[in-house]
Amino acid sequence: MFDEWSALADRVAAHAQNYLDGLTRLASGEGGDAILPMLLVEVSQVSLAGAQLGAAQDVILQGNFEPATGPDPDLDGVRTALATRLGEVDDYAEVFDPYKDTVVTPYRLSDDLAAVAADLVHGLGHYRAGRPLEALWWWQFSYFNTWGNHAGAAMRALQALVAHTRLDVVEESTIA
Fold this sequence. Notes:
This is DUF5063 domain-containing protein. The protein has helices at about 1-25, 35-55, 75-85, 110-130, 130-165, and strands spanning about 90-95, 105-110. With about 180 residues, it is mainly α.
C-alpha cells in the first residue's frame, strides 16, 4: 500500500508545484491578456489532483498526529498581485454548498486562488520533509474542507469569464 500512497503523493506534489509556479508567474504579469484562460488551465489541472485525492480511500495518520512543517510562505503578495491583474472581474458570486446553502455569497478569485495555494504549499512542506503520507493526509483533508471548494468555485467563475469573452460578441455592422 505504501507504494500506491507514494505514487499518489508524487503526482499530487507535481500538480501542486505546477499550480504554485503557474500562479506565481501569472501574478507577476506573464500571460498578458490571456490570464483568464491560463488561470482556468492552472485550476483545472490542480483540480485533477483533488479528484484523485477524493477518489482515494481516506488517508489515516498513525496516532492521528500531523508533525509541524514550520511556517508556510506568505502568499499575500501573490493574492494582491492577482487581485490587481484581475481588476473588476476579481469579485463574483457563488453558492458555497449547493446542498446546504441557498444564499449567494460574494467571493474573490484572488482569494480563492491563494487559498488553494496555501493548502497545497502546506502539504508540500510535509512532502519535501520526506513525509509523503502526512502530505497526502493534509492535501486530502484540506481538499474536502477548503481548497476543493475554492478551486471548484474559481473554476466555475473562470470558465464563465472565458466563455463570455468568446461568446459575447458584438454584432458587426454591415456595410451597404
